[in-house]
Amino acid sequence: MHSKLIHEANGQRTWALIFDTGDEVMAVLKAFASHNQLAASHFTAIGAFKDVMLAYLDWEKKEYRKIPIDEQVEVLVLAGDVAEKDAKPAVHAHCVVGRPDGSTRGGHLLWGHVRPTLEVVLTESPAHLRKTIHDASGLPLIDISASDAAV
User: Fold this and answer.
1) 80 with 91: CB under 8 angstroms?
2) How far is 127 from 112, CA to CA, in rounded Å?
3) Shortest CA distance to 80 belongs to which of 137, 126, 138, 129?
4) Contact (CB, 8 A) for 126 and 108
């Protein structure tokens, strides 16, 4: 992955992240967020995967059901955020992919291997967001009351 800071003003930074064939998206995003100490960011992306693992939250069981896709797909939409959890950046992303026949699949992004590229625009806010465990779901969710962003 190659990155370039493309904008910086008033504590806000925006990067272009260009992933290469074979890069595993979630691992690289987590490493980038950690290296740059990101705590309140959002991102969008387009590109393609050679394979990807999506997931769907089964609310009753409080667990993710995996959706494996073992074929070349277009990344139609990838969107997510970075917030602080346990004093470290936590990356959360959802993705919709297009299959060769034009059908789509979507869900929570667990992992994906890029082929040939993925183009991400990531913007960091100067305020920090923190995740805490949500009682009803058991999931780490952004807690505005625990964040610097509360107004």
Assistant:
1) yes
2) 29
3) 129
4) no
* 48 CB burial (10 A radius; 0-12, 13-18, 19+): buried
Q: Do the Cβ atoms of 92 and 26 come closer than 8 Å?
A: no
- Total number of domains in the chain: 1
- 93: phi then psi, degrees, rounded to nearest 5: -140, 150
Cα 81 from Cα 93, distance rounded (Å): 7
**15 in any annotated domain:** yes
33-37, 141-145, 147-151: segment of lowest average pLDDT = 147-151
CATH of the domain at 21: 3.30.1330.80
Structure tokens at 149: 């962003």
pLDDT at 10 exceeding the cut of 80? yes
Tell me the per-residue pLDDT of 82-99, one tens digit each, with 9 for 90 and over.
988 888 999 999 999 999
Q: Is residue 10 part of a domain?
A: yes
